[in-house]
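Thanks for the sequence, V.! I ran DUF1990 domain-containing protein right away. Repeating your input here for the record:
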Amino acid sequence: MKLEDLAGLQLTYDVVGSTRYVETPAGYHRLEYRQRIGTGDEVFQRAADALLSWRMQPAAGLPMTATDTTAQLGSNSLGRLGPGLLIGRSPLDGIGLPVPCRVVWTVNEPDRIGFAYGTLQGHPESGEESFIVTRDPDGIYFTVRAYSRGATWYTRLAGPVTRKAQHYAARRYANALQQLATR
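Predicted structure:
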């Protein structure tokens, strides 16, 4: 699968925009992970820039390419789920399962910036994941919210293991974004 192949693919779920809300759509598993990543306007801006320019995923060990240099409504992205997410950057980064996604909503407010992408055909999961940086009175926070269910026999069979892996990935994303924002 190549990045240019994604334009013709459809989303694999019908609850588009679901990560904007707290309610879990029927038939989906929910993940919510929130981590304080620092304080101050500089940290907020650097985190927002790293998130919107697709630098968080590779820093967390998920190689990623996208059709646009910044995440915007309709942007397609293609990641590779492989050994890098487990051990960090790896010479095997180009090997792994394709994880094609499309940005389905964005937010750009003075104290809240981010986006959500939804799974496209060929992704091992079906659902949506959002990444939001917020400026709160006590610091800068990063939140990952996802609703998903297995889209392949192997992700359905893995069940709880897949959900643990998603939680692990959310922690890796938060730690990577914190490093990118506080350097």
